[in-house]
Amino acid sequence: MKYVIIGNSAAGIGAVQGIRELDKDGDITMISDENYHTYSRPLISYWLKGDVTEEGMKYRPNEFYTENKVNALLGKKVVSIDKKNKTVLMDDASVTEYDKLLVATGSDPFVPQLEGLDKVKNKFTFMKMDDVRAVRERLSKNSKVLIIGAGLIGLKAAEAMVRFTNNITVIDLSERILPAVLNEEASHIMKHHIETTGVRFVLGTTVKEFSENTATLTNGDSIDFDILILAVGVRPNTELIDAIGGKVDRGIVTDDTQAVKGFSDIYAAGDCTKSHDITSNTDKMIAILPNAFMQGNVAGKNMAGGVAHYTNAFPMNAAGFFGLHIITAGSYSGEEHTAISESGYKNLFIADNKLKGFILMGDMINNAGIYTSLVREQTPLNEVDLALLLEKPALMAFPAEYRKEKLGGQR
Amino acid sequence: MKKVYVNEERCLGCHLCEFYCSFAGGGETDMAKAFKLGRVVAPRVRIEESKDINFAVQCRHCEDPLCVKSCIAGALTKKNGMVEIDKAKCVGCYTCVLVCPYGCIAPDKKSGGKTVTKCELCLNSAAGEPACVKGCPNKAIVYEERGEQ
């Protein structure tokens, strides 16, 4: 059996591990346009901050490819798939055959069409190793940094850069920071926390026009900068599947075995795909690393002839900014149950007898996974001690029989 | 493989396991010294208690561990049936805290929350066998084979 995996990040690695659980000998070829041993993309901000070395960013050990008998073709880009002859063509004109193909091409930063952006010399995105290396080369203590986008990527970039400069401004079209991850209240708490570090926010506005070192905002203000970071979101890389007539609806559409709709031997996983969010019962992009790994892992098992389904995706995030951590999951709709402590915040969202989502901050994050399991399993809340769960995540809230099964090894 | 199990009916909620656990990971040889000098107590076993139920819970070393699959740094691995944390690789993002269904991975107080900590069956500590089991006065925590992977 010949497996070809396009992509060398979380989804691709998940697939290798999934394949090797069932097929120890099949040929695995992994192709990536990035010339790096597999590394964790979310760790680039930690590298810039100085918390990890480049060696420490490796997502799997140095022996990973040899131990898993993976032929890693790094620094090559797949330009097309020939589904009739079952081959992929690379940018150096070489061709590789496959029996089963995984498209794990990820996503690229979305670069908005802003007036005058072409005049800005020092502009960067913040997603890959080469991006962050380029930023690092430019940064000094006199740098004036402007970050467009107050989402997870923009704020992790800001956090990493304060050790270099105290002149950092973050702007966002939204009226609040982390608009996709936090509600208004939690966002407000985080904003105040980050502002104490000297990072400035200008919200509810965007850039009307750039000159080389100045951004004129739609609210009339102007901001001088010498480093511009574009962190407004990501766009799935779907071109290869588009070109062969596969179904794409913003992301690549797959079934729950991760097979691309309409193809039996082509799979897709990770940021390039669309997921089904069980908490809102809608299809959406869930561009987070655990989702990518799990999709890739399921794809790998199916590619190797096994049977695996990925049926319980939902958005979730864990991140810390300047020491204040947030853990969030699911959808923020339904009846709200809010609590505020000295250094924490919590909001649970309940609808249809289920926990649909939650936001936890600061000292409220402990044992969060117990809440996450209620979201993942869509546990009927009348079967658990809801009053206790509203107070804190606890296994005691589950029936004794359930505990015996889960904790007693009777499963 | 052998795992740590808790017999809820026998647990008195005495919290001794927390002390034995912290002590086992602390490198001290004298328990009084270990806890009386204002040092941080960072047990990897968690007690839940109410008026009539008490039990201790620690990493289940799941057959298909969500924490390992979700770790963004590749710091969590499962080897020979045990889920291990490589603290040198951990960046303290707490994605594992987000996904563990048992609440059995926690920010490590000893590192000021820069990494997480979890039960590793005392295999990496001086005790050599789970200290919580050895120290439990009522056999409420046992270390035995129940056919789990």
Describe it for me?
The complex is a heterodimer of chains A (411) and B (149). Chain A is α/β, with parallel strands linked by helices. Chain A folds into three domains: 2-108 and 234-303, FAD/NAD(P)-binding domain (3-Layer(bba) Sandwich), CATH 3.50.50.60; 117-230, FAD/NAD(P)-binding domain (3-Layer(bba) Sandwich); 323-407, Enolase-like, domain 1, CATH 3.30.390.30. Chain A has eleven helices and 27 strands. In chain A, strand 23 and strand 24 form a beta hairpin. In chain A, helix 1 (10-22) runs parallel beside helix 8. In chain A, 46% of the residues are buried. Chain B has five helices and eight strands. In chain B, the strands form four sheets. A two-stranded antiparallel ribbon of chain B has the order 1-8. Chain B has a two-stranded antiparallel sheet with strand order 2-3. In chain B, strands 4-5 form a two-stranded antiparallel ribbon. The model of chain B has no long low-confidence stretch (mean pLDDT 88). At the A-B interface, helix 8, strand 23, strand 24, helix 9 and helix 11 of A face strand 1, helix 3, helix 4 and strand 6 of B.
Q: Top keywords for this entry?
A:
heterodimer; A: 411 residues; alpha/beta; FAD/NAD(P)-binding domain; Enolase-like, domain 1; five-stranded parallel sheet; 11 helices; 27 strands; B: 149 residues; alpha+beta; Alpha-Beta Plaits; 2 domains; two-stranded antiparallel sheet; 21% helix
- Helicity range of chain B: 10-25%
**Low-confidence spans of chain A:** none
Largest β sheet strand count, sense and barrel closure of chain A: 5 strands, parallel
Low-confidence stretches of chain B: none
The average pLDDT of chain B is 88
Tell me the Rg of chain B in angstroms.
15 Å
Instruction: Quickly give the structural class of chain B.
Output: alpha+beta
The end-to-end distance of chain B, rounded to whole angstroms, is 6 Å
Sheet/helix structural class of chain A: alpha/beta
Discrete helix count of chain A: 11
